[in-house]
Amino acid sequence: MDQAVIEKNAPAASNGHMTPQPASAAPARLLVVDDNAAVLDAYRKVLTPARLSSEALDVLEAALFDAPLAASQSHPNFQVDYLQDGEQAARQALAGRNEERPYAVAFVDMRMPGGWDGMQTIEALWQADPRIQVVICTAYSDHSWEDITNRLGWSDRLLILRKPFEKVEVLQMASALSRKWMLHRELQLELDVLECSVAQRTFDLTEALAEREAYATQLQFQATHDTLTGLANRNLLRDRLSQAIAYASRYGHPIWVAFLDLDRFKVINDTLGHRAGDTLLNTIADRLKLVLREADAIARIGGDEFVLVLRGPEHSTLSAATLQRIMTIVAEPIILEARPYSISCSVGVAVYPSDGTTPETLIEHADIAMYRAKESGRGNFQFFTQEMNLRLLERANLEQALRAAIARDEFVVHYQPQVDLRSGRIIGMEALIRWNHPQMGMVSPARFISVAEESGLIGQIGLWVLRTACAQCRKWQRHGMAPLRVAVNLSARQMADKHLVESIAAVLEETELPPSLLEIEITESSVMSDVDHSIAVLRAFKDLGVQLAIDDFGTGYSSLSYLKRFPIDVLKIDQSFVHDVESDPDSAAIVVSIISLAHSLRLQVIAEGVETAAQLAYLQRNDCDYIQGFHFCRPLAALDFEALLFAEKSLAIDTGEDAPARETLLIVDDEAPILEMLKLVLEQDGYQILVAQTATEAFDLLASNQVHVVICDQRMPGMDGIAFLSKIKNLYPAAVRVMLSAHDESKMIIGAINQGAIFSYFVKPCDSATLRHGVRNAFRHHRDHHAVTHREVH
Ligand code: C2E
Ligand code: CA
Ligand code: CA
């Protein structure tokens, strides 16, 4: 096959009027394919005639003629490749396209024996570059136009040149087609640019739309979520609850709406600051999210208030155990300011459909139930009952009734004596308000004080109590009774009153009560909410000369460091500790430590709610200063209290100083005959013998007697002997503990001995000599280890 002949013509003439391409563009590329070298030559003469020193010629011509050269004399500028082989032409076309130097026009001979024929070449050319304009050169005898279009299809890229052809025909075709190609290409370029900019605009628009959508989503999120914790807010909760209700009503499922409120959150927030408060809320929120799998929704709808929507029955998350688990998760310790805090919560539950069928009523009823849970001692849960709702309505009515009560003067003050444990004498009294309602009779302050606080009526009512109590106290003093101290309760709400100190000063002046006879009782929580303000107010009280007491001590924050900063005089031990002081080692430990704490800070201690002789004896033995409680006297109307004073009622105090204690033995057994028999045997040794058939009886005896040795049976209903003696070990470590047991229990008992709960034991049945000997040893042990004098008997 002949070598391809490739020639380039000269650069475009500077005056080229017929230039088919923009001045900046390269000359159009042409391909000529013919197997006959002579034909190729003929093409060459037409398309790229040799133009020797064309520049020189131009200059000459320009010198001869004034005008520019005639158009006919000018020649269009092509770059032409002359090839003898179709296959090579196709390769060349592909390369040109790939190198971005595409061919505009191809002249292809129809008949090229020995290689590809024209049709095949054209097909291949278009495959390589579909934009190429093709001129097919054919003799009349070759193919008909029909044949050609049948094979190549109708196309505006195809022209036929019949052989033999005119030179000018070739030139015109080359010019027109390359111009067409060029225009097409420019158009395409413009189209591309246009398309590009449309794409860009579309992209920009999409982006802007996406941005707007994200913004809208964010707005939507903010409108439906709590910003601090990211939990749903009240709006979203209502939606979710509506959905849950719709679903539940269709399938007949119940739903629980659990209203969860943190206990004492305010104290943390006020004492550790809002940052710590926020950390706490976020931690709780995270923990609640963990239970989300079981819940349909969790929302935070107020400061420390969360609501959970729990569904049943196929999820079967509706059980008290689930609630308990959630409460346990909440109460796990949280580190705040490097110290662990455990925050319990109170939960109220309303059930769909029995407690309500709309989100609003369910949430409201769960809220009411939560309040009840708080009232009944925090850290627990309550289910809503219709009776609670009635109470709420009653509350609203109560406020109205309280206003009327103030106007109608229906309040009275009762007085409960406080007794000195050393002398047994009444040293003062606590003023306690009652409402003498025309229909309901005497209403307890527990029923109405909180409503009075919430409605703000407490200010007026509290001041009235203060004035009444001070006037009463002053009256008794005038009647010649020993000066008594009157204690008046002050609510947290009153602490915030700016004119409080002034008002108290005015009352003292008006009633002429010596300020030292007034004691003001405040609770820990009411001073802890704003410590600095409280200290200022309490100092002002002290400047007036009144006494200050912390009420219900032990139930609140009980922070020692704050206690030291408050100018207080008295601690009142809360009733709940006094209540089981003689039987519960924890309560006993708290009472004993409050007493010693108070004394080390030079404060006096009053134990409240003393109801039994045993409690009294325990407190007395542990050095408590004063007591107040039903055991000595209930709160009395002023006249009754006066009678008490006239009668000089006092507490019989066993000072225990007159005679050294007799050796005392306590025998505990639930079977009366055995008790009787043991008593008979051991009485021979002259001990004072006390007997008890139950642990409770035994605790009472221990509280009011000094017991040196305790014998008890291992098997007792309620509490076994080891548990009982272990408690005694904590409450009365000095009492020596002896156990009676059956043979097969010895292993367990040895364990108890090793833990120090038991001094010795006897295996039943045992003879009286062994028993007497063992008990004698126990008393000897007591004498040796405790410097207590025992009275020798006989
Ligand atoms: P508190 O200040 O702790 O008062 C002691 C309560 O314990 C009184 O209840 C009293 O009757 C009762 N109590 C006394 N001894 C015993 C006992 O041995 N056993 C038992 N179980 N209870 C005993 P009360 O009078 O019903 O008052 C309840 C609460 O109402 C008071 O608790 C106090 O917080 C509040 N309160 C009473 N009067 C006033 C007042 O004038 N102003 C204010 N702000 N609150 C008052
Ligand atoms: Ca009180
Ligand atoms: Ca109290």
Mean pLDDT: 86
Strand composition percent: 15-25%
Physical arrangement of strands within the biggest beta sheet: 14-15-17-18-19-20-21-22
Distance between the termini: 151 Å
Chemical compounds bound to the protein: ligand C2E, calcium ion
Q: State the helical fraction.
A: 40-55%
- Tell the overall outline: elongated
| Structural class by secondary-structure content | alpha/beta
Integer-rounded radius of gyration:
54 Å
Biggest pleated-sheet summary: 8 strands, mixed, barrel
Low-confidence region ranges? 1-24, 63-72, 788-794
Overview of the molecule:
The strands form five sheets. An eight-stranded mixed beta barrel has the order 14-15-17-18-19-20-21-22, surrounded by four helices. Strands 1-3-2-4-5-6 form a six-stranded mixed β-sheet, with helices on both faces. By secondary structure, it is of the alpha/beta class. The chain has 28 helices and 28 strands. The chain starts with a strand and ends in a 9-residue tail after the last helix. Helix 3 (86-98) runs parallel beside helix 4 (118-128) and helix 12 (386-408) crosses helix 13. One calcium ion binds next to loops.
List keywords for this structure.
binds calcium ion, binds ligand C2E, six-stranded mixed sheet, alpha/beta, disordered C terminus, 794 residues, 28 helices, disordered N terminus, single chain, eight-stranded mixed beta barrel
